[in-house]
Specification:
By secondary structure, the protein is mostly beta strands. The chain has five domains: 38-153, Jelly Rolls, CATH 2.60.120; 169-251, Immunoglobulins (Immunoglobulin-like, Sandwich), CATH 2.60.40; 265-346, Immunoglobulin-like, CATH 2.60.40; 360-442, Sandwich (Immunoglobulin-like); 454-568. It has strands at 6-10, 25-32, 47-49, 53-55, 60-70, 94-99, 114-115, 119-123, 128-135, 144-153, 169-172, 176-178, 193-200, 215-217, 226-235, 244-251, 265-268, 272-274, 289-296, 311-313, 322-331, 336-346, 360-363, 367-369, 384-391, 406-408, 417-426, 435-442, 454-456, 467-473, 483-492, 508-511, 514-518, 528-538, 543-552, 567-568. The strands form ten sheets. It has a five-stranded mixed β-sheet, with no helix packed on it. Strands 3, 4, 6, 7 and 9 form a five-stranded antiparallel β-sheet that branches. InterPro entries: Ig-like_fold, KIAA0319-like.
Length: 572
């Protein structure tokens, strides 16, 4: 689209204003000489000058002369005298376009004449100002007019756009952030396209459905925050702008720890239990500290109470079981959040253990007491007892549900009898395995008789001061049981250390199967009498005590007189 601008020159006076040639515009100059005897830039004729036109390198300049006309017949000198313009070859009137700068192509130069009827089509290579002059040597009556049309075609000049990424922003993590490139401009008014790019910080997803104002969600950041930097460039279809940058400062918004003490657990008593808080986390990625505390139930000892997985041993519980409650507190250094978990401890019942005692030996007719006191239950449960007879002569148990019932041993023959009993205990849930005990019932045993006992020998002769073996005989046991003799005391009626007569001590010695007595007596005495006391016990524990004497007479056929058992024969 070309626009024509007409500049008129009248009376050689340059009209006000300059012709500014815009892109792709056409400018027409109309020169209207009114006065003569003017000189134009060295030409010796009257001339007129238009105002200047600014030209730039690359402008396409087209000048087409439209000719000369005179308003008054004869006013324009010419061969016809009728005012008609002369042929171009004869014309001395000319259009004189020239520039303020030199070295331009074509005929455009300093004061280069351009005659009527000529045209010019050139490209400008150097900037300058175009002026249009006119010589009126053919129109002396000041009534002529010389017309010429000048077209300047200027190629479009594209200016780069300017990106504007907007002001820096401070936002909180998790918030919706809108970037703003609406302040970007194009000097030429061209439509722009926008290209955003993140150049630093935690990557985010830009929603560019609105490329001028894209959005994103601020990422979660650590306590110190983080800066995200974005770059914006715009494009006008030909040129790309310089990049502009915007910083988005993302502030940390502390989030509470997500504390998880774990699901409810069911465990057996006395088992090792591990609590589990490992699912606890901090949304901000902060380092957490842990503290476990028991807040209900039978107290236990926690090992590792500041870790995610402490352990403890479940306590022993009754049949009804028990519930222990633990609390986990997790702290991010700013705030702490707690959670609890219940641990159900179940009773694990163990069968009780029955113990009916060891073999019993009792005489017929005696009371026999059975003994289940060593029975036990490892859970500590209260147990009940149940006795019954399995073998042997039937007896009547006093209380078969007692811990230690009794019965009377039956009468038996010489060989006695064997009775067998069974004990079962119960903890309220399960019974024990049976335990057994044997009771051997013996025929009644009479103690041995010591009344018929005598020393053998009962007289020691001769009194030669030697030790002589002495035994005790004559003991009787009604059942002919083996009898064991225990020496109790050995005494005498004379001093053990008497002088003279070759007295020698000791006067008595105990032996495993008897004793030794010294065959001596005082020469001036009435003989020596030894007194021996003993205890005789049969194989059933029945016993008797007795005493025998041994004498050493003064002479061979004499009789010793006991003056009293005053001296211990076993002492010197």
């Amino acid at each position: 689209m070309f626009r024509k601008i007409v500049l008129a020159i009248t009376g050689g006076m340059v009209l006000i204003g300059a012709c500014i040639v815009a892109n792709a515009e056409t400018t027409t100059f109309t020169v209207d000489p009114k006065y003569s005897d003017r000189y134009l830039a060295g030409y010796p004729h009257t001339g007129f000058q238009s105002s200047g036109v600014q030209l730039l390198p690359g402008d396409h300049l087209i000048i087409v002369s439209t000719g000369l006309s005179c308003a008054v017949p004869g006013g324009c000198n010419g061969p016809n005298g009728n005012g008609a313009p002369p042929p171009p070859s004869m014309a001395s009137s000319f259009l004189a376009p020239y520039l303020s700068a030199t070295a331009l192509v074509g005929k455009i130069g300093t004061n280069a004449p351009f005659f009527v009827g000529e045209s010019l089509d050139v490209f400008v290579t150097q900037a300058g100002t175009l002026y249009l002059g006119f010589n009126d040597s053919r129109c002396d009556d000041n009534s002529g007019a010389f017309y010429s049309q000048i077209t300047v075609v200027r190629p479009p000049v594209n200016n780069p756009p300017v990106a504007e990424a907007g002001a820096d922003q401070t936002v909180t993590e998790g918030s919706l952030v809108t970037l703003d490139g609406s302040a970007a401009i194009d000097p030429d008014g061209d439509a722009l396209t926008f290209q955003w790019m993140q150049v630093s910080g935690t990557p985010v997803a830009l929603n560019t459905s609105d490329s001028v104002r894209p959005t994103f969600t601020a990422p979660l950041v650590t306590r110190g925050g983080e800066t995200l930097t974005f770059r914006l460039v715009v494009n006008d279809g030909n040129l790309v702008s310089k990049p502009d940058f915007v910083n988005i400062n993302v502030k940390n918004l502390n989030h509470l720890p997500e504390t998880e003490a774990g699901p409810i657990m069911t465990v057996g008593e006395r088992s090792q239990v591990t609590l589990d808080g490992s699912a606890t986390f901090d949304p901000d990625g902060d380092v957490l500290t842990y503290q476990w505390t028991q807040i209900a139930g039978s107290p236990v000892e926690l090992s590792g109470a500041t870790t995610t997985k402490p352990v403890f041993v479940a306590p022993a519980v009754g049949v009804e079981g028990a519930i222990l409650t633990f609390q986990l507190s997790a702290s991010d250094g700013i705030e702490a959040v707690s959670d609890t978990v219940d641990v159900v401890v179940e009773n694990i019942n163990h069968a009780p253990l029955a113990d009916a005692g060891d073999l019993l030996m009792r005489n017929e007719g005696n009371t026999v007491v059975l003994n289940g006191s060593k029975s036990s239950d490892q859970d500590g449960d209260l147990i009940t007892y149940s006795w019954r007879q399995l073998e042997g002569i039937p007896v009547q148990i006093s209380n078969s549900y007692a811990q230690s019932p009794s019965f009377t041993a039956p009468f038996v023959g010489l060989d006695g009898a064997l009775l067998k009993f069974e004990l079962v205990v119960n903890d309220g849930l399960v019974e024990s395995n049976p335990a057994h005990v044997l009771v051997k019932v013996l025929d009644v045993n009479a103690p041995p008789s010591c009344d018929t006992a005598k020393a053998d020998p009962s007289v020691l002769w001769p009194p030669n001061h030697k030790l002589a073996p002495v035994g005790i005989t004559g003991l009787q046991d009604p059942e002919n049981n083996e009898v064991n003799i225990e020496l109790l005391n050995i005494t005498q009626d004379e001093p053990t250390n008497g002088l003279g007569d070759g007295d020698t001590s000791l006067d008595a010695y105990k032996q495993e199967n008897g004793l030794l007595l010294r065959a001596e007596r005082a020469g001036n005495g009435n003989g020596r009498t030894y007194g021996i006391t003993f205890k005789a016990t049969d194989s059933f524990g029945e016993s008797c005590t007795g005493a025998v004497t041994v004498t050493v007479p003064h002479d061979r056929h004499g009789i010793s007189i006991d003056d009293g058992q005053l001296y211990d024969s076993l002492l010197p």
